[in-house]
Amino acid sequence: MPDYKAPLRDMRFVLNEVLDLDGHYASLGLEDINSELLNAFLEEGAKFSENELAPLNRSGDEEGCGFDNGVVTTPKGFKEAYTKYVEGGWPAMGGDPEFGGQGLPGSAGIAISEMTGSANWSWSMYPGLSHGAVATIEEHGTDEQKNGYLPKLTSGEWTGTMCLTEPSCGSDLGILKSKAEPNADGSYSITGTKIFISAGEHDMAENIIHIVLARLPGAPKGTKGISLFIVPKFLTDGNGSVGERNAVTCGSIEHKMGIKASATCVMNFDGATGYLIGPENKGLNCMFTFMNFARLGTAIQGVAHAEIGFQGGLTYAKDRLAMRSLSGPKNPEGPADPIIVHPDVRRMLLTSKSFAEGGRALVYLCAQLGDKVKLEKDDAARKEADDLMALLTPIAKAFVTEAGLEAANHGVQIYGGHGFIREWGMEQNVRDARISTLYEGTTGIQALDLLGRKVMMTQGQALRNFTKIVHQFCEANGDNADLKEFLEPLAGYNKEWGELTQAIGMQAMQNPEYVGAASVDYLMYSGYVTLAYLWARMASVAHAALESGAGDEDFYKAKISTARFYFKRILPRVAGHKGAIEGGLDCMMDLDAEHFAF
């Protein structure tokens, strides 16, 4: 298992040089938050991730979680690491100071989330969903609910879950069956079964606060009749003290392909006491606060697995000797050359590197937009950020996780047969990565959200808002000869993106099924062009740094070289996706279902 090393230099490059967080925070009136403060957090976060979490990654995978009559035990060392995490104040970074938080904006903690996830994704899932629970209660809860739950959730003494999926419904929440019956005291009795609940039961925190979707009596059918409830594992006195056990139990834990150290639970609510959060029958609207948070968190997972695939592959490729370079020996004193000299190995390494670093830039950009949505005082600027984040979220969630899975597979391939063996850690990275394209909405669901809801339902305005930004970047740098190799193809694909969207819209007017046929290829096209824009921005910053004599020449030259690889070897993939979209709907639908054969 290769040791994880937090890519601090690249994180600082994206945060400080590309996204200018100092200027960003100043524009939001956050004078006490700056890059110097964030660098201190990054250093400590790297130590915790590398020294406390990474050593537990393989052992946690091998041991898995224990289950005995409703009681879940996490692997050895997980609970102790979580205690240190809470003592270090990490869960409280972004929390409201009114409830014991440190008041930092979301972008200040995004790199910490990446580091903990890269070091040990299974462990990071236990505190990961708590932030979404906090955000949901903050935005939709009553003052009593905020005072009763947020202090302990913010500190990390309690953790939170998101309870949506049921045996009869996955992404189609309109057919969920869980019920909520009103009680005389204003609470509700929640009855139903939820499945695939991450961290639904565990031994790491004093209490678990479930955020649960259920139906009230007489509620409208479909998604318009869903309400949202707070259902604690232990009932509380409203002041942070726990009382009797609520009627919510873990029926079993799933035996999974990956993330084996994360307890994925079947949760049974047997008349459990719950409390309505938000308006009746508007639960799905409220839950989107949680879901969008979780989708960005899943995008971080894509970055994490790409980074691990790259780091592990690079370490091995430098050491492993096999064959000679076709242009002559590069290690003449040895029996063979290190495999990093071979072009195909470099192809895999650079693909993984370009996905990890490009994905990092996209996810950190989304976090910056999230700051503006929450803190920007100008209504127009806040709406602009909200609209842009809405467009980029499904791209970040789906494209970055697909790219992360590809990079994880490259990590195995670089090792050859050794990559298939557990001791090297690369096969675990693939197994853990596989879920990222499934939960929080599959790639297909995210693609429909992007093309159907975010683009078509806004008559393309959401897309035009972003392509205008890309166009303005290309125009502003048009006289820069160093960037010509990036700007010319970027400008062309940016224009084609709009034309492709219009063509899909015309086809969809004839048959709405065309949206479903085009959606995943459209999302992948969108992802490649979005990362191309960010790689062009990074190349621009790197060129400027070299010209100014800023130092660290090797880093900036590597950044430009990776950008060049992305544009020449990765970005051309959009042609295949465009061709697939133009292949149309009929070839998918002509064959009757009963004529599919084994």
Mass-distribution shape: globular
Strand content is 5-15%
Structural class: alpha+beta
**Proportion in helices:** 55-70%
N- and C-termini, Cα separation: 40 Å
Largest sheet: 7 strands, mixed
Annotation, overall tally of beta strands = 11
* H/E topology pattern: HHHHEEHHHHEEEEEEEEEHHHHHHHHHHH
From the alpha-carbon coordinates, what is the Rg to the nearest angstrom?
A: 24 Å
Low-confidence blocks of residues = none
Please describe the structure with a list of short key phrases separated by commas or semicolons.
single chain, 598 residues, alpha+beta, seven-stranded mixed β-sheet, 11 strands
Structural account:
The protein has 19 helices and 11 strands. The chain has helices at 8-18, 21-27, 35-53, 57-63, 78-87, 106-119, 121-140, 143-155, 283-319, 343-375, 379-415, 426-434, 443-455, 461-476, 484-510, 513-548, 553-570, 574-582, 586-589; strands at residues 66-68, 71-73, 158-163, 179-182, 188-198, 207-214, 227-232, 234-236, 242-245, 248-253, 264-276. Strands 3, 4, 5, 6, 7, 10 and 11 form a 7-stranded mixed beta sheet that branches. Strands 1-2 form a two-stranded antiparallel ribbon. A two-stranded antiparallel sheet has the order 8-9. It starts with 7 loop residues before the first helix and ends in a 9-residue tail after the last helix. The model has no long low-confidence stretch (mean pLDDT 96).
